[in-house]
Specification:
Oligomer: heterodimer
Number of helices of chain B: 10
Helix content of chain A: 25-40%
Largest sheet of chain A: 9 strands, mixed
Order of helices and strands of chain B: EHHEHEHEHEEEEEEEEHEHEHEHEH
Largest sheet of chain B: 7 strands, parallel
Radius of gyration of chain B: 22 Å
Largest interface: A-B, 85 and 104 residues
Structural class of chain B: alpha/beta
Number of strands of chain B: 16
Strand content of chain A: 25-35%
Distance between the termini of chain A: 60 Å
Chain lengths: 272, 343
């Protein structure tokens, strides 16, 4: 059985800064990491492989050439093969164009390797765009069933039994294969790479897939020109101005003072 | 799509019992404004086993038309079934704009539809307006709330976007009553490939963070699951729901369903009390619609104080009981008061 895990290299969100003049992201010097939710998708695949070592895990990323580092990270953790979809023709893609390129790349890999993916796993969203759109959009293009916000899963009777987060709590669903599942943060972290795997990952060959390989695909659906959405402008979020701050260390009656304000201004009018 | 209409559609998601989910009704509010500006009708679309209850909820809220598809296959949300039915209607009527609530179902459905119709979709919008050329300018936070982006979909229709529950207020009730169009899906529905095996509700059905008037929320500063008990006691005193930051949820102190922020819920309470929450951009992205923010934090430099209307620098475990006592001494146990939380 073959599982494909789709991953993205993202800027480490904790260190994001906005250029006050251009109102765009400052990308220089920002560390790139494997999107954390994709790490959970990879861990879910790895756990299926723990139970059935015959499973082969393939990792696919679309991005600039340096996104190769994210794939090597996947190889070091659990993936058996890595593929990088990279080409100038792909640059500037929105989620729809991205999912088209990824779905065409997936078909290409299946043809080339003579395999078909029983499962496609993705992170529920990337921490830079936060859209959660690419997974379901790929599922649609490949005509697959989809499950989002997955936590943990197991295979049974050619079905994927998967716990997923819902608005109200959790539910377990059983879905027929092939299917696409997206994963959110479960109660555990992905496994760490062993030294042996890390060494092998450094030397591993990553298959590069570009416009040449996808020549039968529709280039009008790729890149900036294939993207229905356009970013008109970006700006820093407007924060409301702060108000009254009291300090209990400096004013022993601070809380009483604030309670008085809250009552006078009818912000809190009843207590039990 | 050729010659799309000027209409704006809102998907009003239903629960299994046929009642409308609140976010769909909230979207009729910006929907009305944008439909008027586009020069088209406001159309609510409802899929359910029995659409009676949802239609009844929608009609007084200003929709010109309620489009329904009724039948057993629509009882439980199913992505492929809902995608097929909605794409059929969207292709038949060709609205200009289509809004959906960013519930967990809406976030499954919207990208699936946009992918089938090959149109643009913007997720989790916090502001909607028409730009000078008449396109919807979809404004949304990205990079964990650190930056806002204004997105256009110039050439593809419908222009699609999702909005999280609680971002917009319910529209005012109007005397006008729109028409109901009972549609049906004329083809075979896709096969169901998915069964729900078991369900665990972590949030009692009584808890409604998105609809709460007052929320007491805890962050890393709460320190433990037991620490949340102090917040619950205080919340009970003032009649509030319990929220949490990602930090507190990630630490396992409280279920994810209580999480407020970019990766949690968007809330619009009258009063939001942030206890031990530093105020990271991703958290602030979820409380942008709160009217008044009260912050309690030990760190006087915490980001949250920069946006809070009222701030108390101090230990929340001392401040909360004391604040409850001070409020009680001023307000008494006014349980019989009818105008609760009046501004």
């Amino acid at each position: 059985m073959h599982i494909l895990v789709c991953v993205k290299q993202v800027p480490y969100a904790q260190n994001i800064a906005i250029d006050p003049v251009t109102n765009t992201l400052v990308r220089e010097g920002v560390e790139s990491i494997l999107n954390p939710f994709d790490g959970y998708a990879l861990e879910a695949a790895a756990r299926l492989k723990d139970a059935n070592p015959a499973i082969e895990i393939h990792a696919l990323s679309m991005g600039p050439p340096q996104a190769e580092a994210a794939l090597r990270e996947c190889l070091a953790m659990a993936a058996d093969k890595g593929y990088l979809a990279t080409d100038r023709a792909f640059a500037g893609s929105d989620t729809l164009a991205t999912s088209y390129i990824l779905s065409e790349t997936i078909r290409y890999i299946e043809r080339e390797q003579g395999i078909s993916f029983a499962l496609i796993f993705c992170g529920k969203q990337a921490i830079d765009g936060d859209t959660a759109q690419v997974g379901p959009q790929i599922a649609e293009l490949l005509g697959m069933a989809q499950v989002t916000n997955g936590l943990v899963c197991e295979l049974q009777d050619n079905k994927l039994f998967i716990w997923r987060e819902t608005d109200e709590g959790k539910e377990q669903v059983a879905v027929e294969l092939p299917c696409l599942a997206t994963f959110t943060k479960p109660g555990f972290e992905p496994r760490l790479a062993t030294v042996r795997r890390r060494t092998a990952a450094r030397r591993a060959e990553i298959s590069v897939i570009g416009a040449q390989e996808l020549q039968e695909s529709d280039f009008n659906r790729m890149g900036l020109k294939g993207s229905p959405t356009q970013v008109k402008r970006t700006f820093a979020p407007t924060l409301k101005a702060g108000g009254v701050v009291v300090d209990t260390a400096q004013d022993p009656a601070a809380v009483a003072h604030l309670a008085q304000l809250l009552v006078e201004r009818h912000i809190i009018s009843t207590v039990k | 799509m050729d010659n799309p209409s000027r209409d704006l559609w809102v998907f009003v998601e239903t629960n299994q019992d046929g009642t409308a989910r609140k976010v769909g009704l909230e979207l009729l509010n910006p929907g009305r404004r944008l439909a008027d500006q586009q020069g088209g009708k406001l159309v609510a679309v409802v899929l359910a086993e029995d659409t009676t209850l949802a239609v009844k909820a929608v009609l007084p809220l200003g929709a010109d038309t309620v489009m329904t598809i009724t039948g057993a296959p629509y009882r439980q949300f199913n992505t492929e079934v809902y995608t097929a039915a909605l794409c059929y209607l969207l292709q038949k009527y060709q609205p200009q704009t289509f809004l959906l609530g960013a519930t967990s179902n809406g976030r499954e459905l919207a990208p699936r539809i946009s992918s089938r119709l090959q149109t643009g979709l913007t997720a989790d919008c916090t502001q909607l307006h028409l730009d000078e050329s008449g396109l919807v300018a979809w404004t949304r936070p990205a990079f964990g709330g650190n930056i806002m982006a204004e997105i256009l979909c110039p050439k593809h229709r419908p222009q699609m976007g999702t909005v999280r529950p609680g971002v917009f207020k319910l529209p005012a009730v109007t005397a006008k009553r729109g028409e109901v169009i009972a549609e049906s899906f004329p083809f075979d529905l896709p096969l169901n490939k998915l069964q729900v095996v078991q369900v665990i509700n972590e949030v009692s059905s009584l808890v409604d963070l998105e609809g709460a008037e007052i929320i007491v929320a805890g962050g890393r500063g709460v320190g433990s699951a037991q620490g949340f008990q102090v917040l619950r006691t205080f919340a009970e005193t003032i009649g509030a729901e319990i929220g949490a930051s990602r930090g507190a949820v990630d630490a396992g102190w409280i279920p994810h369903a209580h999480q407020v922020g970019q990766t949690g819920k968007s809330v619009s309470p009258r009063l939001y009390i942030a206890c031990g929450i530093s105020g990271a951009a991703q958290h602030l992205a979820g409380i942008g619609s709160a009217e008044i923010v009260l912050a309690i934090n030990q760190d006087p430099n915490a980001m949250i104080f920069k946006i809070a209307d009222y701030g108390i620098v101090g230990d929340l475990f001392e401040v909360l009981p004391l604040l409850a006592q001070e409020l009680r001494s001023r307000l008494g146990s006014a349980s019989s008061e009818t105008t609760q939380y009046h501004v």
